[in-house]
Amino acid sequence: MKIDGKQYRSIWLAEDTTSIHIFNQEKLPYEFEILTLSTMEQAAEAIVSMKVRGAPLIGCVGAYGMAFAMSLDNSDESIERAYQVLVETRPTAINLKWALDRVCARLRAVSPEQRLAVAYEEANIICDEDAEINHNIGLNGLEIIREIAAKKAPGETVNILTHCNAGWLATVDWGTATAPMYLAHNEGIKIHVWVDETRPRNQGALTSFELGGHGVPHTLIADNAGGHLMQHGEVDLVIVGTDRVTARGDVCNKIGTYLKALAANANQVPFYVALPSPTIDPTVWDGVKEIPIEQRNGREQSHVQGIDANGQRSFVDIAPTGTPCGNYAFDVTPAELVTGLITEKGVCAANNDALKAMFPEIMQG
């Protein structure tokens, strides 16, 4: 996708072909900073601090983190040490563990002398596959938007609501939830996106940054406004991303997603979840009971980032001194509230039978 007219991916190899470049998403959309990562520790810190975020992108950075570890020590012990450090950085999103497991399986199958080259090769492949997967998600989601647009009067707008940032900044390219929006806009379908602010980290600002850069009409709204808009017929469909989908179709996504699903269900608004297949976790059945929900530092809840009157990025404390802050990063939307899962293979129902039919290689693995 583009920033100021220049084409970017959210992660790419540096000219030295051993380090990687990422955007510092802690500072976006207020400051544009490109960081270089070259060690496993830097990769782990970038994930923990949310310099990189989004389940697919976290997995890609983790994969390169394993390659960085192999550049210093290609032993079996080094594989295990690096794996443990990286897999513990973010507990909820399954893509990280999936990517690390995939890289480690290849590393264990070759001699120590081959491991460095194999690790970089696999990390590169994972990144390229992610971009292709997301483009295909976009094509399948585009069909849904086309169908809604076809039922409208000429010139009427398709209004889409999204929560958090499931855009190209959270993946390698295109995004998951945003990919159908970009393709619909490129095709000339008149769309408008309601972008939830997504407290506490206000990741809706990242989605707005993306959509604005691509010229997609959008409006940033308070998290609590979605239900009101649905009641008044201002939302045609909801598309969100996800960090983990269970074997029965429960969806774990950014905190607040569950409330949007409830509002959509109450107002007969279709609620779709866009996901790459590595986000499916066949080992978990009941998302509410089994998925670990990350709790982050309360400062993310009590302090709001923005631009001050002097044009400087700053943080404002909005909580009374000494107030305890609960910062739950994710929630789980039960499968029965999900209209459909938009995947790279097509759109399927959010249930075990449909997932088995579409992804037998995952569900039976």
UniProtKB/TrEMBL annotation:
Biological processes annotated in GO: L-methionine salvage from methylthioadenosine
UniProt keyword ATP-binding present: no
Enzyme Commission designation: 5.3.1.23
Pathway: Amino-acid biosynthesis; L-methionine biosynthesis via salvage pathway; L-methionine from S-methyl-5-thio-alpha-D-ribose 1-phosphate: step 1/6
Primary role: Catalyzes the interconversion of methylthioribose-1-phosphate (MTR-1-P) into methylthioribulose-1-phosphate (MTRu-1-P).
Active site: D243
Source organism phylogeny: Bacteria, Pseudomonadati, Pseudomonadota, Gammaproteobacteria, Vibrionales
Tagged with keyword Amino-acid biosynthesis: yes
Name of encoding gene: mtnA
Single GO molecular function: S-methyl-5-thioribose-1-phosphate isomerase activity
Leading EC class: isomerase
Pfam families: IF-2B
Reaction(s) the record says it catalyses: 5-(methylsulfanyl)-alpha-D-ribose 1-phosphate = 5-(methylsulfanyl)-D-ribulose 1-phosphate
Protein name: Methylthioribose-1-phosphate isomerase
Organism: Vibrio sinensis
Site (Transition state stabilizer): residue numbering on this chain: C164
